[in-house]
Design brief:
about 50% helix; 12 strands; alpha/beta
């Protein structure tokens, strides 16, 4: 929790409990609090940076920070939730409130659960709404953003811990490093790769020089991946298919070896200020709805004709129209891992039959419908607050740091920064299809020009390249995914996995390797989990 010096976190939590409003707390938290008047209250912070899971046994509510604690109770249903498994195959994570286990649920971000005379239901205690009025002038809001970011980093630095920063060379990690240097935390940590396409140390060095940070670098190799795979995948209490968890662990472990006990991470900026490429891509599809009706009719006829779509260049038009006609979130999912209609090609017939009517798109539609925003980009951002931040990126960083023995904090997700983002109109966030428009304008006099103009990269591994070139990794993947004893065989068609692996070897792009990773993570995780 973010508290003034000398204030007791337990007292702050109990005050929030008495008030019946966890939203009065700022920072990261997951708590269980009981009083005779208020009963038992479970709550997690705005983005669930700290986990809390629960299970109901009749009139008894069981709760813990991890599923394995509840799985030890003999009467809890720990069988596989097949809907959660199918969600995992589509999203590479299991969206809350589901877990991999039928009888255990996650408490969702910005939710609480109260049990008094009777068992309550989880309820949202805080909403972010993207509105179109701006709430002030552009210059005033830009100044407010800089002030709130500086204040957030300052509070996270002033804890008495040995604080360092992740530094990828992107907008957000560079922002955090810049303010951290000012507030007495000059150590910045980067990892790189020998594969130039994935290596961003050039931009990290530019940022470090610009702010005078004490920069530490380490090169990660295929051996690092193979040696840490079981440890990192196994630290999650359910399947988790984001390969960047390996990169987080390697960087956090490196920082721990240099004496750091806490790292500041820049996660959240892209989902607050529109920095993901899919937002710009979706804006192109939205233009279709504004075309004159006769033009849309002509394009629709072309898209429906296999003969026309077979002509050179026309196929792209057909694909554009078909996607543009889809509502969100279906359109966003149409270029995800694979579409629900192809599920029968992926899973065993027995799983498909047992699954019933559930499909991953239903999970996505329910999340998307919750968003309150006046612009389409605002709705997509709110969708990503749950699916990309709470369920994916924050879990990746929190768990990857924990297994390395390092705590992590997220200044970009401080309440003041988040609520300011909600004041920004959609055309400020994404002007003319350009990502992070307002943020870059606000930080133009603070960040290095090279960082402001670089394309978004991320914190990914060169898994696709390594899978082609490293014999040890290739053998491991083959054994886990394609052998007769693969732990996936009961659920996944072996022919599908063989097809993915072979398609990867035949192509130069990383697409198929990215599809393989969630299956690899699942195959590594399953043997270590007594889930039945």
């Amino acid at each position: 929790l973010l508290l003034d010096p000398g204030h007791d976190p337990a007292a702050a939590i109990f005050a929030a409990h008495r008030a019946g409003d966890p939203a009065v707390l700022d920072g990261s938290f997951a708590y269980a609090c009981w009083s005779e008047a208020g009963g038992l209250e479970l709550a997690v912070d705005l983005f669930r940076t700290r986990p809390l899971v629960y299970a109901r046994l009749g009139d008894t509510l069981c709760f813990a920070s991890r599923t394995e604690v509840l799985r030890a109770l003999p009467t809890i249903d720990t069988g596989t939730d097949l809907a959660a498994l199918v969600d995992y195959l589509s999203f590479a994570v299991i969206p809350a409130p589901r877990t991999f286990f039928r009888g255990i649920h996650k408490l969702r971000a910005a939710h609480r659960l109260v049990a008094r005379e009777r068992m309550g239901e989880p309820e949202r205690y805080w909403h972010l709404r993207y509105r179109e009025d701006g709430g002030g002038s552009r210059a005033a809001l830009a100044a407010a953003l800089r002030e709130r970011l500086a204040g957030a980093v300052s509070r996270h630095c002033g804890t008495g811990d040995r604080v360092g920063c992740f530094l990828s060379g992107g907008l957000d990690s560079s922002t955090v490093v810049g303010y951290a240097v000012v507030h007495g935390a000059p150590d910045a940590f980067s990892i790189g790769f020998d594969e130039a396409r994935y290596d961003e140390r050039t931009y990290a060095r530019i940022t470090a020089r610009h702010f005078g940070a004490r920069h530490h670098e380490r090169v990660v190799t295929p051996d690092d991946l193979v040696d840490s795979l079981e440890r990192v995948v196994g630290c999650f209490d359910e399947p988790f298919g984001n390969s960047s968890a390996i990169a987080v662990y390697q960087c956090a472990r490196f920082a721990r070896a240099q004496g750091m006990t806490t790292l500041l991470a820049g996660d959240g900026g892209d989902e607050l200020f529109a920095g993901n490429e899919r937002y710009a891509t979706d804006a192109l599809f939205q233009r279709y709805a504004h075309l004159p009706a006769p033009v849309r009719g002509l394009l629709g006829a072309v898209a429906a004709s296999d003969r026309f779509c077979a002509l050179p260049g026309v196929g792209k038009v057909g694909r554009y129209v078909r996607r543009a006609r889809l509502p969100n979130p279906d359109r966003i999912l149409s270029y995800g891992l694979y579409a629900d209609q192809h599920l029968a090609e992926v899973v065993q017939p027995e799983l498909l039959a047992a699954l019933g009517d559930h499909r991953a798109v239903a999970t996505a539609r329910a999340l998307y419908a919750e968003g309150e925003a006046e612009s389409e980009v605002g709705r997509l951002l709110l969708f990503d607050h749950q699916l990309t931040l709470a369920d994916n990126d924050l879990r990746k960083v929190t768990e990857g740091c924990a297994v390395a023995g390092v705590a992590v904090r997220y200044p970009m997700l401080d309440r003041g920064v988040v609520e300011l983002a909600g004041q920004l109109p959609g055309d400020w966030l994404l002007a003319g299809g350009k990502l992070r428009t307002f943020y870059k304008e606000a930080m133009a006099d603070f960040l290095p020009p090279e960082v402001l103009t670089k394309t978004k990269h991320g914190f990914g591994l060169p898994f696709a390249t390594w899978l082609r070139t490293d014999a040890r990794l290739r053998e491991l993947v083959g054994d886990l995914l394609e052998s007769e004893t693969s732990p996936l065989a009961r659920w996944i068609r072996p022919a599908f996995l063989t097809h993915l692996h072979q398609a990867h070897l035949n192509e130069r792009e990383p697409y198929y390797a990215e599809l393989l990773w969630p299956f690899l993570a699942l195959a590594v995780w399953l043997p270590g989990a007594s889930h039945e």
